[in-house]
Specification:
single chain; 321 residues; mainly alpha; 69% helix; globular
């Protein structure tokens, strides 16, 4: 990633001041809960929800892998993520799921593969085997939203899989309406699509200008900014964090102005443990008769994602810590 201009360095410093305590608390919680991401230490095993959680963790691990200058604490954190991934992914019932599960699940499993050190991943499933499954199961032709197809291309390119998917620019042109709509008319699924469009087109901020022209990035930033206040008002912390991450990915000098209210709102909403309501939900479930162990597992599945996205927003494309 090119060296930031002076205005961008100043914005980075100001953003970091607001974001650092929020990210640090979320990171401590996530670090303490990493074992919960392994489906095989949980009663429900490799359920869809557990596989999704593991793929989400793999995304964080993969994006951290792409950064060149992680500090010692984050390198240890990345190593712990990879340990959890390896412990789970080496199990045949998980890494062989791509042969029997829905073809749409291939993307998440490819991500788990990518988040491991390449040599280690190849000992579990060689790249040639992934290519074979990709082709024989017609993975690229399985029904999925366009943003999820762009996601597949993003990870397929990093893995080195051969494919004939549209170019990222072609994906952007086909999804341009997402960024041009009146923000008031975007529902929650569409907002998630918009944020993920930004993630993949900018390589999570490492290459903000890889596909998007400066005026396109600025327009997207204004759309994201218009969405921020309504989502804060309804306390949708998952999307508030995703919007902050999206703004960071666009790499504009106005990043601090665009994300300041998001970081302040997240700070106000965040519990002392770094989550957004996990302890309250866990206690409520226990009061309703659930065992403490089951309540902890259920609360984890319901509450990990906003915390995970908060961490990603603080660490990508450049750690604010």
């Amino acid at each position: 990633m090119p060296s930031p201009r002076p205005a961008q360095r100043e914005a980075f410093a100001q953003t970091a001041a607001d974001a650092r305590p929020v990210v640090a608390k979320a990171l401590r919680w996530l670090n303490s809960q990493l074992h919960h991401f392994n489906p095989f230490v949980c009663p429900d095993g490799a359920s869809q929800a557990r596989q999704t959680a593991l793929a989400e963790l793999a995304l964080l691990g993969f994006e951290l892998q792409q950064q060149e200058n992680l500090n010692a604490e984050l390198r240890i954190f990345l190593h712990r993520i990879q340990q959890v991934l390896h412990a789970a992914y080496q199990r045949p019932e998980l890494h062989r799921f791509i042969y029997t599960g829905p073809p749409q699940a291939f993307t998440g499993h490819l991500l788990m593969w990518l988040a491991l050190p390449r040599q280690l991943a190849e000992t579990i499933l060689p790249l040639a085997e992934l290519q074979k499954v990709f082709e024989t199961r017609s993975v690229a032709h399985a029904p999925r939203p366009k943003v999820r197809l762009l996601e597949l291309r993003y990870f397929a390119d990093y893995a080195g899989l051969a494919h004939e998917l549209p170019t990222p620019r072609e994906f952007f042109e086909s999804l341009r309406d997402l960024g041009q709509c009146d923000p008031k008319h975007l529902n929650v699924p569409a907002i998630y699509d918009l944020t993920h469009l930004v993630f993949y087109l900018t390589h999570f901020g490492r290459r903000p200008d890889a596909v998007l022209q400066p005026e396109e990035r600025e327009h997207l930033a204004k759309t994201l900014q218009a969405l921020q206040r309504p989502l804060i008002q309804v306390e949708h912390w998952d999307l508030v964090a995703e919007l902050a991450l999206s703004q960071r990915c666009l790499g504009l000098p106005e990043e601090m102005l665009m994300t300041d209210s998001a970081w302040r709102a997240l700070a106000a909403a965040q519990d002392p443990d770094g989550t957004y309501g996990a302890q309250f939900l866990e206690q409520l479930l226990i009061e309703q008769g659930m065992t403490p162990e089951a309540a902890a597992q259920w609360a984890f599945l319901r509450c990990y994602h906003p915390c995970l996205v908060t961490v990603m927003a603080g660490l990508c494309p450049q750690p604010l810590l």
